[in-house]
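Page 42, continued from yesterday. The earlier attempt failed because a stray header line got pasted into the input along with the sequence. Redoing it now with the clean sequence only.
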Amino acid sequence: MLTVSALVLAYGDEPWIERCVDALLMSRGVDVDVVLVDNGCTTGAPGRLAGRDRVAVLTPEVNLGFAGGCNLAATAARGEFLALVNGDALVDPDALAALVGVARDPSVGIATGSIRLSDHPDQINSVGNPVHFSGLSWAGGFGDPASDHQLPTDVASASGAGMVMRRGLWEQLQGFAPEYFAYLEDTELSLRCWQRGLRVVYVPDAVVVHRYEFSRSPLKNYLLERNRLLLIATVYERRTLVLLAPALLLVEASLLVLALAQGWGDAKVRGWLWLLRHRAWIRSRRRQLQSERLQPDSAVADLLTDRMTMANLERPAGLDLLDRVLARYWRSVRPRL
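This time it went through. Structure tokens are written below.
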């Protein structure tokens, strides 16, 4: 059987860690081991799991976040394939085999699962994540009946809650940039696959039940906004950035107004300050990603959406108007990429 190393992170008082590991080890059709990174778990679960067969536990000195934690776990992986599975998610017994069956195709970069809501397992949490041309990304198909998403589909971005890729490809791409810490690192990795001509594919038979909570971390708004800007600053070609500059500035102004109205304006500003302090690294990262790409932005632009259709968030006042303006602008510049 093909071998899979499942990378799992344990943080805080997450109650599903042991159930997550148990579900992974009961996978059928593949030979699975689990690499668990203790990012600051408070339940004692890593200690209880440390002696288990086919389970390796790594304990860094600090919380490495999702990006750094997955990178560390991958260094101890033995499988031909890597499965990224959230510690608050349970894979169905055949899910990993279904994902591996797609990820082994040389034309595929990442296979992403049918992520379901734990309180409504017949409803979707994510069928892959849409990516707006402004860098915003969200859970695709959120709340839809799972029966509406029964066909394999190419998607812009995989969900880090349940995805598989070849270990050799992960190593070629050097995994996640640890600077992301958490959020949108899966989006960046997905877009980098597309820029190499490798598909990201939604696999409906790979069911993963996820205990989803949107506002779990107080740092989330800061990280989402900082990482969104980091992504577009490093992944897009220069011509794309120039063409999109007016729209991106409009998005920034709108998000600043929203942040001030909702009480997280300081987080928005801190994101700008981080980018300013790390501008040398951003330039270096940009040079690296642009040198690695095999496809221009024009070849992957159809993956990007011009509409903000996130169903897992309350739509603020004025978003519909902004959405229409941005969609019209994207349609006007898209042929010029």
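Notes: The chain has two domains: 3-210, 220-336.
Reminder to self: strip header lines before submitting.
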